[in-house]
Design a protein that fits this description.
The complex is a heterotrimer of chains A (about 850), B (about 140) and C (about 290). Chain A has about 850 residues and is mainly alpha-helical. Helix content of chain A is about 65%, strand content about 0%. Among the domains of chain A are: about 5-25 and about 535-650, no CATH class; about 665-840, Cytochrome c oxidase, subunit III, four-helix bundle (Four Helix Bundle (Hemerythrin (Met), subunit A)), CATH 1.20.120.80. Chain A is built from 24 helices and four strands. In chain C, a hairpin with a 4-residue loop joins strand 11 (about 240) and strand 12. Chain C is α+β, with helices and mostly antiparallel strands. Classes of the chains: A mainly alpha (about 850), B mainly alpha (about 140), C alpha+beta (about 290). Chains in contact: A-B, A-C, B-C. Chain A: Keywords: Cell membrane, Copper, Electron transport, Heme, Iron, Membrane, Metal-binding, Respiratory chain, Translocase, Transmembrane, Transmembrane helix, Transport. Chain A: It is found in: Cell membrane. Chain A: It is a multi-pass membrane protein.
């Protein structure tokens, strides 16, 4: 297919007809919800997150009404505690993080000139999980059983079943479920950025939004798993009485605080960096020039990501840790302000060098930066420990964090809404209403939160349902309440603007005259994403590349057709974006929805202690996942296909060249991080106890024999899997099958040997934290061995069913990655529980 | 990896060899990773000494050596990045779709990260010089 | 602390004004007002180097302030334990006989006080804004806070870590006294309270015993030795009731006795609404004799 062929309008029309048929969304009152196309799933995701934001905002308004005057009794203490817990938890878990993922699911394929993300069904699964978990958690307030322990859920208040009820389980299990979907989305976005870029888009040409998404998704990968590890320990204590946080039995409430804040502080940057990413897209557009200092932005994003993992203890400045430990975190908290400053000055320099065209999105961006800078400066103040000892847990912090989150997340998102609305709907929002909303929001935010700095310094602690008149803060509180309702009015104006949108006429294409790839989107968009996948030669191809839009539209670039009637997109190499493969994408299916419902049932039924039903849900989940994998992965009907311009790409690759391998690798990184959270727990208990392991009935174990046996068996199974991969690739299929078959038995043996140690020595997990943490590590590793058995069995079955051959061996290569991580997990677990007691 | 450079005695040869080292996303994160390891090392050293011994050495050799080592790796990685970022070609911004521009971009970003990581390691080391007990 | 706050606030305002001014100039400037080179210089100096220097100075300048105050040999040791939702206070025998108190801490002016902070049930945080920063009270751990009052007077303290339903209603008083007055107070506290003299107070003492109040509350020199709730040996000497939430008065005492959960949601003290108002009043009268 030469350039010349695309001159023929009839050919183009035929191609478009084929593409349209392939990308046709499912219809019908039920089946329309089985769609997996990023445009549709992304919009559902965004609207749902927006809805949760409005809901959580209403909760805040009730709180402000209660606090308007001293000693008010509008709501009870119990209701108030549910209100602030849910407000914080929802804004973080159901709005800020999912919103960024939702927006990215919409934007990323467009920014990268891809037809869709590499795993569309995974996006759909993430959405349904989010919806189910979100409704479960937020709906609890209507039954007066919402979580009421604060969004940080500090034990022992929340783990003692006599002090806190169902709400704690709803928080822990409902949000764990959502964390799983967040990690799933992160996997999708990382693979999307690294492998789905258009040809020619080397790392130095990537849109800055993609850089930020890459960084943030990697942060999610390392930040969420420690919380998941904490959740596991938390629920083991609540449901089974394993005393991880109970000091009477050797536990320590501080372990939770460490695990929570190792998640919790990076979380702040996880919700802030995507907003900066929106600025990085908007500011060049309205400055009418390239961004100035592109590598500096990358520095800022990567630097912030790293440093943000060295800040967690600044939430624990008052816990009585050694001052020198606090000082390390104070130092890192100061250092993290440097990259943030760089980001802001890159924007100043870009605006300075360019010709600024004023617009509503830019107004939101500038107002947001003003508010954010104030929040950042108070952040530097509270990073200084002596100041924080006064400000900590007072309204000063409430003011600080709302300045950061309103300036760093909410207003940028509203700006992004005004900027990207034409991209998604083809229509512009009203400039007049937008500016009105902005000024109401800006004044409202400052009126609400500025007085809180003073309220806090005057001595008003956070999370109080009322305050005495003697404190002298009633005037300031009333001001804050008035401000909050003003702010709500601003949000209402935006909602009205959105509601009026369907009645407005379509805007022209690329209404802001932007230069980046996503603005190829046509007001009357087709579902295929992009007509042909372009060759990129600039950071702002629409501005810089000649006839770029026309060439894309006329299908003169790559993959302009869908000859085989399949949904396809191009995979390129990580660094230089050389075309490497064409992959077939998942099509609409009920499987993601069924999997999400089944997995959700596991978490929800466990909340109500319906363990047998939960187990049944788990079996259904497993079956659904296996069916999903089995039916999605296939051997293509031909080896390769041309994508235009004489380039022929393979349709199948395995190992590190394939997106599936990366997805497995990245998922296992998250898994290993969660595991390291548990291992951290073991050594944490070792540091807090003079004698660890302790001795006594039910506490002596697990010995060295069984752990070493289990380690040896796991390593043997790992070696068999690696050998099977190698021999299989050389065509020795039956030997490989034999190795896998024996491997299944050996892995199974390692599972039982791993549990045998604590079992035969009679470690009693409810007695003391030592047996509890040993059992936890052993069960974690045994569970992973169980998954290993499933992996090996699945691969063996694929081979026997003829769905895996020496040439098409992605399954075997992917499970080998799993086994590398399994071996690592086993070595660390069994060395810790079996050998460390001998050394200490 | 690139093929070996032939002559290696003069200064230019070294520069050339450095320029031909591969630059990837992994080399980009070397400096901040060193910061992270150093940070974790400092924190764990203090936490374990305070919990297990109730105090730590006044001018600990392991701490000083660790800090110097961390700074050394960061400087080395920054120096390599500096040389690579000077690979001849068109002036910045490096926004052409060429291998050279990609290399120069990644090298510049690595150099900047090395600067930030250097400062961050110094920041982390400061408390150990100024606070001396476990309270 | 005050100087640090003012210094940082002033610095913050200055930085904010500079950044806002730069944004304004940047937006108003014509196209190409600065080139690539100038822009990069701005980012390098204003965005990276100046902030690094300012932050380094701030860090190095404030690190010494992190050193805790030294507790000297003469330091008064006071044990305080956070409970839902009140404060258990204990003075040690080193000063001539240990005794317990609650919800009010008296300290001498000019002498360092070494607070040993723990928690009975959940995490609380001990905070006296006018005296020192906050320190968490964590079950299973004992934290220390060393502080010194430089002038006599009453300081308000409160719980700063969310601890349950009545977290908002968990305050206390710190009374800093001149050393001589403090020593007199110590001596008084070590003595059991006087036996009630009036008829109604005597009836109150009986009601106190009959209703099992002594199961939770202790009164020195009587069979009441409960340790679940606050110690009442010298309750009448305190200025406030219910952990700093209302002034000490007969009416408030009656209110609290008859329906503590209404005054303080989540309090462990059950309702005594079946108690006749006259009986509750008698108990209040008895409590008022415990000086």
């Amino acid at each position: 297919m030469s350039l010349h062929a695309q001159d023929d309008p009839a050919l183009r029309a035929a191609q478009e007809e084929r593409l349209r048929a392939v990308w046709k969304p499912p219809s019908g009152w039920f089946f329309r919800w089985t769609d997996v196309n990023n445009n549709r799933v992304g919009v559902w995701y965004t609207l749902t997150a927006f809805g949760f934001m409005l809901f959580a905002g209403v909760l805040a308004l009730i709180m402000r009404a209660q606090l308007a005057v001293p000693s008010n009794d509008l709501v009870t203490a119990s209701t108030f505690n549910q209100l602030f817990t849910l407000h914080g938890s929802m804004m973080m878990f159901l709005f800020a993080v999912p919103m960024f993922e939702a927006v990215s699911i919409i934007l990323l394929p467009q920014l990268l000139g891809a037809r869709d993300l590499p795993f569309p069904r995974l996006s759909a699964f993430g959405y349904w999980s989010f919806l189910i978990g979100g409704v479960f958690v937020s709906g609890s307030i209507f039954f007066d059983v919402a979580p009421d322990g604060g969004w940080f859920m500090y034990p022992p208040f929340t783990t003692r079943t006599d002090l806190s009820g169902l709400g704690a389980d709803i928080w822990m299990l409902g949000l764990s479920f959502i964390e799983v979907s967040s990690v799933a989305a992160a996997v999708e976005l990382i693979v999307g950025v690294l492998k789905c870029r258009p040809p020619g888009m080397r790392l130095n040409l990537m849109p800055l939004y993609a850089w930020y998404i890459l960084v943030v998704a990697v942060m999610i990968l390392f930040a969420f798993p420690p919380l998941i590890a904490g959740d596991v320990l938390f629920e083991l204590e609540r449901l089974l009485g394993w005393p991880f946080f109970d000091p009477a039995k050797g536990g320590d409430p501080l372990l939770w605080q460490h695990l929570f804040w190792i998640f919790g502080h990076p979380e702040v940057y996880i919700v802030f960096l995507p907003s900066i990413a929106l600025f990085a897209m908007m500011i060049p557009t309205f400055a009418r020039r390239h961004i100035l200092g592109y590598p500096w932005i990358v520095l800022a994003a990567v630097g912030t990501a790293f440093l943000s993992f060295g800040l967690w203890v600044h939430h624990m400045f008052a816990t009585g840790l050694p001052k020198i430990s606090l000082a390390f975190f104070s130092a890192a908290s100061e250092a993290v302000a440097i990259p943030t400053g760089v980001q802001i000055f890159v924007f100043i320099a870009t605006l300075w060098a360019g010709r600024v065209v004023f617009s509503t999105p830019l107004l939101f961006a500038l107002g947001a930066i003003a508010i954010f800078v104030i929040g950042g400066l108070t952040g530097v103040m509270v990073a200084i420990a002596p100041f924080d000892w006064q400000a900590h847990d007072t309204y000063f912090i409430v003011a600080h964090l709302h300045y950061v989150l309103i300036g760093g997340t909410l207003l940028p998102l509203f700006g992004g809404l005004y900027y990207y609305w034409p991209l998604i709907t083809g229509k512009k929002l009203s400039d007049r209403l937008g500016r009105t909303a902005f000024w109401i929001l800006f004044v409202g935010a400052n009126l609400t939160f500025f007085p809180m700095h003073i309220t806090g310094l005057l001595g008003m602690p956070r999370r109080v349902f009322t305050y005495p008149a003697e404190l002298g803060v009633d005037g300031l509180n009333l001001l804050s309440t008035v401000g909050s309702y003003l702010f709500a009015a601003g949000v209402l104006v935006i909602v009205v603007d959105l509601a009026l949108s369907p009645r407005r006429a379509k805007a022209p294409r690329n209404p802001w005259h932007a230069g980046t790839l996503e603005w190829l989107a046509h007001p009357d968009d087709e579902d295929w994403g992009i007509r042909s996948v372009p060759l990129i030669e600039s950071r702002y191809p629409i501005w810089d590349q000649k006839d770029f839009v026309a060439k894309v539209d006329e299908g003169r670039f790559f993959l302009p057709d869908a000859e085989e009637g399949r949904r396809e997109t191009i995979i390129t190499t990580t660094i230089d974006a050389r075309p490497a493969q064409v992959i077939r994408l998942g099509t609409p299916s009920v499987v993601p929805m069924i999997t999400a419902v089944a997995l959700g049932s596991v978490f929800i039924l466990t909340t109500y202690h319906l363990y047998w039903l939960a187990l049944a849900g788990g079996v259904v989940t497993l079956a659904a996942v296996l069916w999903w994998l089995w039916s999605t992965a296939e051997i293509p009907e031909k080896r390769e296909k041309p994508i235009g311009h004489g380039i022929v790409l393979p349709l199948y690759r395995s190992g590190p060249a394939a997106p599936g391998w990366w997805a497995m690798f990245i998922t296992m990184m998250a898994d290993a991080t969660a595991f390291s959270g548990l291992v951290f727990g073991y050594y944490f208990f070792w540091t807090v106890h003079p004698a660890f392991p302790p001795s006594g009935l039910g506490m002596n174990g697990p010995g060295a024999f069984w752990p070493m046996t289990a380690m040896g068996l796991t390593l043997a199974s790992w070696a068999m899997t690696v050998a099977a991969r190698e021999l299989h690739a050389r065509g020795q299929v039956s030997v490989a099958r034999g190795l896998l078959g024996v491997g299944i038995l050996v892995t199974l043996a390692s599972l039982f040997a791993g549990l045998a140690g604590p079992w035969v020595t009679g470690l009693a997990p409810t007695l003391h934290v030592y047996p509890a943490i040993v059992w936890t590590l052993a069960i974690w590793t045994a569970t992973h061995a169980g998954v290993g058995v499933i992996c090996q069995s699945y691969t063996l079955a694929r081979s026997i069913a003829g769905r895996m051959t020496p040439e098409y061996d992605a399954d075997l290569r992917n499970i080998t990655v799993y086994f590398h991580f399994l071996a690592l997990t086993a070595i660390v677990t069994y060395a810790t529980i079996g050998l460390f007691p001998l050394a200490s | 990896m690139s093929e070996d450079d032939t002559s290696g005695d003069d200064d230019r040869g070294l520069t050339e060899r450095l320029r031909e080292r591969r630059v990837t996303l992994w080399t980009l994160i070397v400096p901040p990773t060193v910061w992270a390891v150093h940070f974790l090392f400092c924190y764990l050293w203090v936490a374990v000494s305070c919990a297990k011994q109730g105090g730590f050495a006044r001018f600990p050799i392991a701490f000083v050596a660790g800090t110097i080592l961390a700074l050394g790796i960061i400087v080395a990685s920054g120096a390599i990045a500096f040389v690579q970022s000077r690979t001849p070609g068109d002036p910045p911004p490096h926004d052409e779709s060429t291998g050279i521009d990609r290399t120069r971009f990644l090298a510049t970003a690595t150099l900047l990260l090395a600067g930030l990581s250097f400062v961050a390691v110094l920041f982390t080391a400061a408390p150990a010089l100024m606070l001396t007990d476990c309270r | 602390m005050r100087d640090l706050t003012l210094l940082m606030t002033a610095g913050g305002v200055l930085i904010f004004v500079i950044v806002a001014a730069l944004f304004t100039i940047a937006i108003r400037s014509r196209q190409g007002a600065i080139g690539h080179r100038g822009g990069m210089r701005l980012v390098l100096w204003a965005g990276a180097i100046v902030p690094t220097v300012v932050l380094a100075a701030l860090l190095i300048g404030t690190l010494p302030a992190m050193r805790p105050m030294k507790a000297d040999d003469r330091a008064l040791v006071v044990d305080v334990s956070g409970e839902q939702f009140w404060w258990r206070v204990g003075y040690r025998a080193a000063d001539g006989g240990a005794f317990a108190a609650a919800n009010e801490v008296r300290i001498p002016v000019g002498r360092t006080v070494d607070f040993r902070l723990s928690a009975g049930d959940v995490i609380h945080s001990f905070w006296i804004p006018g005296l020192a920063g906050k320190v968490d009270m964590i079950p299973g751990r004992t934290n220390r806070l060393v502080a010194r009052a430089t002038r006599a007077g009453r300081y308000r303290g409160q719980c700063a870590e969310f601890c349950g339903l009545s977290h908002a209603l968990m305050a206390f008083d710190v009374v800093a006294m001149e050393p001589a007055a403090f020593d007199r107070w110590l001596t008084e506290q070590r003595r059991p309270p006087p036996t009630p003299a009036t008829l109604v107070a005597q009836r109150g003492a009986r009601m106190f015993a009959d209703n099992g109040c002594g199961g939770c509350h202790a009164v020195a020199g009587t069979p009441a030795t409960g340790r679940i709730g606050p110690d009442f040996s010298h309750i009448a000497g305190r200025a406030t009731l219910g952990a700093g939430i209302m002034p000490m008065s007969t009416a408030n005492l009656v209110r609290f006795i008859r329906n503590a959960p209404a005054v303080k949601p989540g309090a462990r003290m059950p309702r005594y609404t079946h108690l006749a108002p006259a009986d509750a009043l008698a108990i209040a009268r008895y409590l008022e004799t415990l000086k």
